Hints:
Number of domains: 1
Helix content: 40-55%
Structural class: alpha/beta
Largest sheet: 7 strands, mixed
Strand content: 15-25%
CATH topology: Rossmann fold
Number of helices: 11
Radius of gyration: 18 Å
CATH superfamily: Vaccinia Virus protein VP39
Shape: globular
Amino acid sequence: MERLNISLEDVKVVYDGPEGVLWELIMGEQIHVGGFKSSMELVQKAGIQQGWKGLDLCSALGAGCRFLVKNCGVTMCGLDGTQTMHQKAQERSQAEGLADKIELRLGDVTEIPWPDNTFDFVWGEDAWCYVVDKDKLVSEAARVLKPGGTLAFTDWIEGPAGLSDDEAKRINTFMKFPYMENLEGYKTLIQNTGLTLVSAEDLTPEYASYVDFYIKMLTDQLSYDALKIIGDDMELFQAMGGEMAFMGQKAHEGKMGRGRFIARK
Length: 265
């Protein structure tokens, strides 16, 4: 699959600008498919325990860290490469009275600024699709895990039916993904680090229904709010709607989806 020349700098443009606000409008603060419900499923699959220390990679608005602190009794660190997301995450952590339990840093997730064997678990939700060097990302995640520690993440992936080169280029260009890994690819990346793969689940059918849900929200309820975010540019709004409809079609064809992965060190 062709990898596009999309870098962290391109992703920063998205999340430092109106597109990032738009994704929060559609998907909530957690900015991932399934919100609270999906996060609780990942917690249960991973066996997250009270008192653990975790690291959320691509932590965005910090909602994943706050969710885990509030619902699992853990302490968290978050790492994200976008200044706007980092600043908002700090402000929201402070506003919710959780700043003493969450450490947030601005940086590159392929160069994690913590020592080896620091964390009981490393966490990610639907964001590693933005990372160019996923091999280095997973390797770094494994490095900072304590022996016996847990890697738990979800991500948007190429579905089991596979995308054509043209389909992948269209979706990745719109979403600012350098490429999407597939289920087998992530399994290989995980195993290459020496981690033991516990589970790798294809969530593509569920993912397709969520894309439909987001489109319906935008067209039936949130059109005014979305237009306001993008400067009332109706042409852009319609173009973005067309790209989301294309993604929905590919999801229903099993060509684009989502995976959930658990591994142990």
